[in-house]
Write a sequence for this structure.
């Protein structure tokens, strides 16, 4: 599966997509840190200067490899390989049928959103890695009835995700609500697990603002609001409806990905309908829905890379649905096959159009 992932993603890596505006900015921030030990840049902009974990890690990578566009995007493929391996571990844990499991992994590898995500030098792949690790611990926690260290481990991973991208804060908030529910239900002291989970986030953030950042914490918050990345109170409703429109254009691509989006929405609906029977499926369904709705409220605009973990959750839900119904009717696995084939055709078409493009430099 890893060979398939690399074979699909390494082709024309420096041709498609065209260089995005902030790819050089993140690279510049990482290079500046590798040379001067400060999270700043020469090109200007704020990419990686507030949510700094991605350029911080990238700075060590570019000390070994020349910071060309190909190598920078290759770094995200390495991250994607680790994420895929973890996703495979998750499917082995929750999907019993081998064929359904293989189809679910194929959906992950071929997903249009993830296919593009791992071909751009942005922090979302690192964000997804930490979120998938936290998902792994969340699933392990589902098997426990008493105190589980998995709640702490998941919180630590989500605190690191928050340092990669503001979207990590959405999932951290939802995870805190889940952890609070579990800890109260199991009658566990709430303070200790939350304190340990928040500790790495707190320590690294304090170090960041003391030694690496050009801005104070309050200046950073003011920047996020003034730049429009976090809306003011008066613009929340308008931004929400604008993002709903962008969902059709930016995520569904009009009618091009309508079949895939319909399958994903159906998977979420099925997951939430299981709230009386299956805690895992229902929790994943509610997390996928509420993370999307909260994202529409908080971010203006809600960009296509922000959908990545939403896609991961819906693919896993499709796999759980196929696994549950496989014995009764094997045709249910056709939904997964349709998803994977439709995605592969879309990816192949994109690469075909890039054959004659000149490499980006």
């Amino acid at each position: 599966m890893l060979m398939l992932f690399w074979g699909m993603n390494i082709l024309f890596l420096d041709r498609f997509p065209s260089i995005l505006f902030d790819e050089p900015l993140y690279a510049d921030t990482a290079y500046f840190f590798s040379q001067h030990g400060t999270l700043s840049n020469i090109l200007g902009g704020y990419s990686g200067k507030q949510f700094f974990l991605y350029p911080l890690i990238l700075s060590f990578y570019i000390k070994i490899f020349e910071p060309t566009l190909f190598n920078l995007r290759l770094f995200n493929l390495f991250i994607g390989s680790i994420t895929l391996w973890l996703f495979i571990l998750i499917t082995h844990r929750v999907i019993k049928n081998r064929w359904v499991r293989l189809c679910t992994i194929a959906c992950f590898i071929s997903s249009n959103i993830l296919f593009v995500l791992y071909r751009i030098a942005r922090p979302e792949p690192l964000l997804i890695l930490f979120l998938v690790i936290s998902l792994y611990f969340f699933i392990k926690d589902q098997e426990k009835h008493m105190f589980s260290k998995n709640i702490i481990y998941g919180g630590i991973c989500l605190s690191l995700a928050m340092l990669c991208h503001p979207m990590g804060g959405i999932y951290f908030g939802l995870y805190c609500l889940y952890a609070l529910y579990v800890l109260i239900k199991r009658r566990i002291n709430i303070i200790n697990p939350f304190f340990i989970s928040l500790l790495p986030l707190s320590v690294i953030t304090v170090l960041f603002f003391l030694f690496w950042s050009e801005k104070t914490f309050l200046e950073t918050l003011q920047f996020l609001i003034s730049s429009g990345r976090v809306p003011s109170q008066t613009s929340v409703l308008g931004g929400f409806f604008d993002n709903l429109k962008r969902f059709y254009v930016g995520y569904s691509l009009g009618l091009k990905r309508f079949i895939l989006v319909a399958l994903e929405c159906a998977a979420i609906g099925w997951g939430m309908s299981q709230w009386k029977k299956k805690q895992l499926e229902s929790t994943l369904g509610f997390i996928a829905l509420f993370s999307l709705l909260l994202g529409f409220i908080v971010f203006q605009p809600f960009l296509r890379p922000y959908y990545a973990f939403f896609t991961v959750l819906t693919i896993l839900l499709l796999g759980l649905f196929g696994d549950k119904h496989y014995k009764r009717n094997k045709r249910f696995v056709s939904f997964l096959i349709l998803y994977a084939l439709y995605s592969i055709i879309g990816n192949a078409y994109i690469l075909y159009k890039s054959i004659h493009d000149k490499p980006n430099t």
